[in-house]
C-alpha cells in the first residue's frame, strides 16, 4: 500500500512502512538489546501542505503523576545525563542567548509544565515573570491557536530539552496557527524577528524546494536546527533546506568506556539526499555521495528506548505527567541548546560543524534501513546519513 500526499502542489509518495503514521497501530521500536517497546507518535500524518511533529512517546513506561519526588524519580534521561554524555558546559554558558521553539497549535500549560521540569532537576526558574520565558503566536501577539494535545507533548519535549542542555538560555515559544508550512514559516520569521539566536524545529514533511519555502529558514546569524525525521531512510523538509542544521538520531547508552557512554544509529533517524536543494559547501569534502544537499549534519539521542524524561500535563491519548520520549524531536532541541551554549551563531553558519568535525563524537555503527549508497543509511567513520558528522563533544563544533 502507498499513501500519497501533496505539499504546495508537489505530489510525493510515502510508503506505508512509516508505521507511526497510524496512531491506532503504534510502532514497535527496537531497544539496543533487541526487545520491542510500544511507542506512539504524538502527531497524526501530515495532510497536504502540512508537517508532522517528530515526538515519539514510550507507551510501555507508566506515567508518573505530579512533579515527581526523590522516591519517585522520572524515567528517562535528565539534564545531568545529557550534559555528561555530550560534555557540555551547561552550568556556566548560555547567558544572553535565546532559543526559540517553533511548533504548531497551543500548549496552554507550557509554562507551568516547564516549571515542573526545571524544579525537578534543580534548574533555575524560567518564567514570564523573571523575563526568561516568553510565549507568542505566529505573529508575535497573544492570540494563541487552538489546543492540540499531540503538539502540546511536542512543545513540552522541546522546552524541556532546550532547558536541559542550556538552562541559562532564555526561551521563546512561538506557536503557529496550524501545522501548515505557511503558518510554521510565519512563526519561524517571527522567532528571528523577536531576537532568537537559535531556533529549534521538531517537525517535517516531504522533501521540497528552498525556492518555495527557503525564505522562512534563511536567517543569517541565527542557528536553525531541524529534526531529520522518524521513519528511517528518507529525506524530509525543512531538514533538507540549505539554510538549516539537519539533526539525525542515535541510541545513547551508558558504558564502561572513558567517555562513559556509547552511541549507535537510531533505526528511525531520517537521512538521504534532497532532490531540490543545494549541498552545503562543507559537504564537498566528506563524501556524502549526494548530488545535492545531504541529511543529516549532526545528531544526538533520539531512540525512544534510550529516551528522555519530559513533563506534560496537557493530555494526549490519555497520557499525562512524567513521560519518556524519543524521536528526532529530542535531538533537534538538544543541538539547539548546544548552539546556545556555544554562543557563536552571529558569526558562523551551518557549514561550521564540517570544519570542526574533530570536536564531535563519531558514530560508526548501526543503520536506519536499506539505501542505494551505503553511507546514506549506514554508519561509518566520518560522515554518514543517519548521524551526520557525529554528536557533540563539548561545544567546539558549534
Architecture overview:
It is built from seven helices and 22 strands. It is an alpha/beta fold and 398 residues long. The strands form six sheets. Strands 7, 8, 9, 10, 12, 14, 15 and 18 form an eight-stranded mixed sheet that branches. The longest helix is centred in the middle third of the chain and has 17 residues, at 149-165. It is globular and about 50 Å long. The model is unreliable at 1-28 (pLDDT under 50). Its EC number is 3.4.-.-. It comes from Micromonospora sp. CCTCC AA 2012012. This is S53 family peptidase.
Helical stretch tally: 7
Low-confidence stretches: 1-28
The CATH topology: Rossmann fold
Average residue-wise pLDDT: 91
CATH C-level category: Alpha Beta
Molecular shape = globular
Structural class computed from helices and strand pairing:
alpha/beta
Total domain units: 1
CATH superfamily: Peptidase S8/S53 domain
Cα radius of gyration in angstroms: 19 Å
- The CATH architecture can be given as 3-Layer(aba) Sandwich
Determine the oligomeric state from the structure: single chain
Termini separation comes to: 42 Å
Using DSSP, what is the number of strands?
22
Fraction of residues in helix: 10-25%
Strand content: 25-35%
> Quick one: biggest sheet?
8 strands, mixed
GO molecular function: serine-type endopeptidase activity; tripeptidyl-peptidase activity
Signal peptide: 1-29
Domain Peptidase S53: 76-398
Keywords: Hydrolase, Protease, Serine protease, Signal
